[in-house]
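During the reporting period the student researcher (J.K.) took over the structure-prediction task from the postdoctoral fellow and processed the backlog of single-chain submissions. One of the processed entries is reproduced below for the supervisory committee.
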Amino acid sequence: MTKNVGTVDRIIRAILGLVIIGVGIVFQSWWGLIGLIPLATAGIGWCPPYALLGLSTCKVKEQKT
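J.K. obtained the following structure tokens:
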């Protein structure tokens, strides 16, 4: 698994995941568990849909010549 989630993307996913979980707790709904998905992808730095579509938000390292 090559990382395909960049730093800014990871931060946004983590915040979004926590907000979804928080809303689920406030409204006492199991739907809050969906927040674990963006939180997990932020934690591991890999997103399956990005991999399927060939996307990446990671910075490209320049090669020194």
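The committee noted the following: Residues 7-45 form one domain.
J.K. will present the remaining backlog at the next meeting.
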